[in-house]
């Protein structure tokens, strides 16, 4: 194995056609296998958290359970609602799935290696605006969800699609703002150059508020618990894919899990050093960041984020929709904007040599603590005055209604006055 140096933009665009083909096929196969593993892992972890066993029959430790479920799902009858727009109904799952695969084209899995006699980076391609490319392609997946809910011809599916699209667009704003600080420190939007800029210190440590904002936003972006509001069974049945079945439903299911891997891989690339060895292992082992070994570090970090997704699903209850949207617009986005101004100021002073780096890190830590506290500070709400409503003659007493209409939060305790004896006819 031949050790290679870190990659840069000049290393891309020179691969022969068969190397590009092999890389493309490998990315597709890895994502499909990773999805099958993640489904199995989620069921096993949640089962352990709930003191159950989980899948353990099909294959070793039940590893083939996801494959068996996929085959069963593909063999089910494919139904199309009579009121559906058939062309859009079929295209929507494809629009949701294809962008999830395409985004991995610019994710670096490792440095330059000897690949069947060819020196090439362990990355399909890269570009000066690779992170913006990922955000743009991921946004196309929203069209699949909106069109899937609209084309079904069902009110529940339409409401689920609208709710999901509003949720994803709202949290994409916070996610994009969280990445601005990374661009300021790396001086580039190229994924390979951002990884190279984290050779000594990860951005997840020096840009902790951005990291926290991104982690919250990526859970909301992927519609996962506790933010899985579009699929709230008690409210909207199954959400935007209520009317889907068989392979078309499987594509939506596949897109959800690949999107989990996508945001996890992006978090790894932008905040946790990408394929670089964790815990400064490379200072003890010179070959930790050479050859194909960094692929292990990369997928280890990705699986850590996947575990966090699973942990949240098994631990937290679902939020209310108005709380979730208010948190995104009134908390995450303002805090992200203030943090960007602070980072830009500190970065400008640092580049001009005005302050010592130690004081900058201390200031960043204090700002991080303040921002984390602001996440959990609630708004003060004035209690509306109650208005007595006269009951109907012979009816039950009516509780007082607030003067401004219905309010958020728990209902006020009801108090009933003593009622006179009600006379009725005898049977």
UniProtKB/TrEMBL annotation:
The listed locations are: Cell membrane; Membrane
Question: Organism's domain of life?
Answer: Bacteria
- InterPro entries associated with the record: NADH_UbQ_OxRdtase_su1/FPO, NADH_UbQ_OxRdtase_su1_CS
TM region(s), chain numbering: 16-41, 87-109, 129-150, 171-189, 201-220, 249-272, 292-312, 332-351, 357-377
Q: Is the keyword Transit peptide in the record?
A: no
**What UniProt keywords apply to this chain's record, in alphabetical order?**
Cell membrane, Membrane, NAD, Quinone, Translocase, Transmembrane, Transmembrane helix, Ubiquinone
Give the reactions, separated by semicolons, that this protein catalyses: a quinone + NADH + 5 H(+)(in) = a quinol + NAD(+) + 4 H(+)(out)
Its annotated function is as follows:
NDH-1 shuttles electrons from NADH, via FMN and iron-sulfur (Fe-S) centers, to quinones in the respiratory chain. The immediate electron acceptor for the enzyme in this species is believed to be ubiquinone. Couples the redox reaction to proton translocation (for every two electrons transferred, four hydrogen ions are translocated across the cytoplasmic membrane), and thus conserves the redox energy in a proton gradient. This subunit may bind ubiquinone.
The Swiss-Prot or TrEMBL record describes its family as follows:
Belongs to the complex I subunit 1 family.
Q: Which NCBIfam families match?
A: PRK06076.1-2, PRK06076.1-4
Q: What is this protein called?
A: NADH-quinone oxidoreductase subunit H
Q: Which organism is it from?
A: Nocardioides conyzicola
